[in-house]
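Could you please consider the sequence and fold following this short note?
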Amino acid sequence: MAFNSALFDGMVIFSEVVTSGSFTQAALNSGHSTSYISKEIGKLEERLGVRLLHRTTRTLRLTPEGELYFQQCQQLIEDAQMAENAITGQQEKPKGRLKVSCPVGFALSRLRPILGKFTDLYPDITLELDLNDRKIDIVAEGFDMAIRASHQLEDSSLISRRFLRSKAVTIASPDYLKKHGAPLHPNELPLHKTIGYAYVKQGAVWDFIDKNGQSLAIQLKSQVITNNSFMELSLCLAGQGITRIPHFHLTDELETGKLVELFADYPQLTIDIFMVYPSRKHMSAKVRCFMDFISEHLGD
């Protein structure tokens, strides 16, 4: 089958429209006119026989077919970029400012021990780490990439690479358990002081699987809720209550007895850790080497 260059061009334009959020911005980014962008999207939809975008004067939204097609386009474009980078990247030295967003707890427990090695390997890279548990807008806020922890990523306009999987653990300090007793079943949690996490949609509900394979959804009203996972862990260590955090936030707290794991026989939420970056951007040598370094040293 002959290669259809017009089809590939249409895929690139379609991806640019989705990632930039508008026809106007896509035109500015690509150097074309808005009318040209609109016409090319129309041709693409006609060729495919489906509508890819719901568009009004103010909004742009993918249809289910558009969502599926966008994912495929992203993969093909990324493969093409990687093929080019395999040649041109050999001449590109990792250097310059690398702006990375990362959750606080993950940075302190996992990144901190290995960052010295990275900076020794790549002395021409200036690593700017923004530690915040909120979900940032990578493109609008000028980040090169981000590390995100989630059981499911929502932003389809980003390329993601999963490098680690972690279970959630329910924990308490020995002092807390000595004063208040240890709950033997998740159903007893509402009788205890709990520490909540603000950036999890289901933060007020802790899910478990019981010994019969049935789901348990425990509704909680935490007395303290924080938007910082490191603060959450610190409060737990201080005996302020029971909390649930991803296991990767812990270093040796369980092994040394500073914390006690509860409900180990009740499976809990599994959390994936991703590296994500804007799909419309060329993956520079500095981003590529950082992602490869993280995968090598922290990947499962």
